Amino acid sequence: MRLWPRSLAARTAFVLIVGLVVVQTLGLGIHTLDRNDLVRLAGLRVYSFRVMSMYRDLVEVPPAKQDSRLKTIPLSKNFSARLTDNVDSDFSNLLPTPPPVRHAILLNMDGFPIPPELRPQHFRFGFDPSSRHEYTALQMPSGRWLIVTSRLPRPDSFQGTEFLFAFILMTALAAAMTIWAVRRLTAPVRTLAAAAEALGRDVNAPPLPEDGPSETAAAAKAFNTMAGRIRRFVDDRTLLLTAIGHDLRTPITRMRLRAEFMEDDEQRGKMLQDLDEMEAMVSATIAFGRIASPNEPVSPIDLAELLRTVLDEAGDAAPDIADQLRYEGPGHLTARVRPQAFKRALTNIIGNAVKYGGSAYVKLIPPAREVRHLKIEVLDKGPGIPPEHMERVMQPFQRLETSRNRETGGVGLGLPIARDITRAHGGDLTLANRPEGGARITLTLPV
Question: SMART domains annotated for this entry (predicted)?
Fold first, then answer.
């Protein structure tokens, strides 16, 4: 069970709410202790007043009539009183009354209006913890003792359910305000993350607004500056590759014309083949350079229909293995992509499977509820790729023995172009060998 949240907003809110609960709990504890003291002192004051009132009523009558007078004094449910000549046996099994309680009772008794000659001669205090009864004995001028017993109630720490409900409601409201404030304060972080994700898909993504707090505005300005530098770098690279390709095509064309006039047929054929490879390399390099600076807009397309179209085109190009081309998946599935670029990526992947696996089994897996991306798997029945070469074939201009794609002229750009196009859409492309033989190319795409 993971208690520590993952997001910055959740962690900040969690720390603040825990601190709030701790402070609220400590405040509640201090309030409860203070209130309990006040309630206890008030209860002791009432207790002392009642004891002294009863004592005064008794000492104002002759000793012979004190017993009968005691019977006429109304007592509450938790109160009892009796007269005795000796209190030793009554207090032998009692605990001493805590000093704060004893001092509070004596202080209240001292302030009670009673003539000095009638005041108690001696006091005895005791406490029974099992029944929570307080025992107070006062010796009258006649020498007899008045023993008063009262059960002291426990203080109600929360003043009933209303106080506890108010405390919980106040804490919940404070927690809700904390969560709201933290989400507002961390919203620029989420905006920055979304902008970085958008920049990874499209270098021409709109810039961030440079407003809000000074730190947020500074971060947005730095991000926009970085995005501008990336765009200039990509544009410069694309311009450079286009210029090189344009400049190379002219001498290649001249060399092709000169080769046509060569008398040696064998040398002429080799020369033309080399020129074809050079022209294919130039075209593929320019195409690879333009991937990072896409001008094609994103639009919704039927991905299932696009996969079937690419398979049909592969079957037309290789009719002898048309029966080895299969599609599995939903009849229709809409996704937002750059249609021409994404079709090229699928053509490269499926063409790679056809050329070196002699088959292409395409599976379209729709996104599940808890997963926000779809999958396209292309399986073949070929020999697969040695594990030590898995990373190599995904690098530009890297090949195994022969070309793995006809369209790029066998210069090792088929899979790299497909992966870069996929990543430009926010997805990824991975390569693995199947246990039963052949390769599996998995393309993931966010939805």
Answer: HAMP (SM00304), HATPase_c (SM00387), HisKA (SM00388)
Q: Which CATH topology does 299-446 take?
A: Heat Shock Protein 90 (3.30.565)
Read off the pLDDT of residues 70-109 as tens digits, 9 standing for 90 and up. Answer: 888 888 877 888 898 888 888 878 888 877 777 877 777 7
Same fold, 214-290 and 299-446: no
The tens digit of pLDDT for each residue in 166-183 reads: 778 888 888 889 888 888
Q: Which of 303, 294, 436 is nearest to 375 (CA)?
A: 303
Domain extents in the chain: 8-151, 214-290, 299-446
> What is the CATH topology of the domain spanning 214-290?
Helix Hairpins (1.10.287)
Q: Residue 273 class from Cβ within 10 Å (0-12 exposed, 13-18 middle, 19+ buried)?
A: exposed
Q: φ and ψ at 112, to 5 degrees?
A: -80, 135
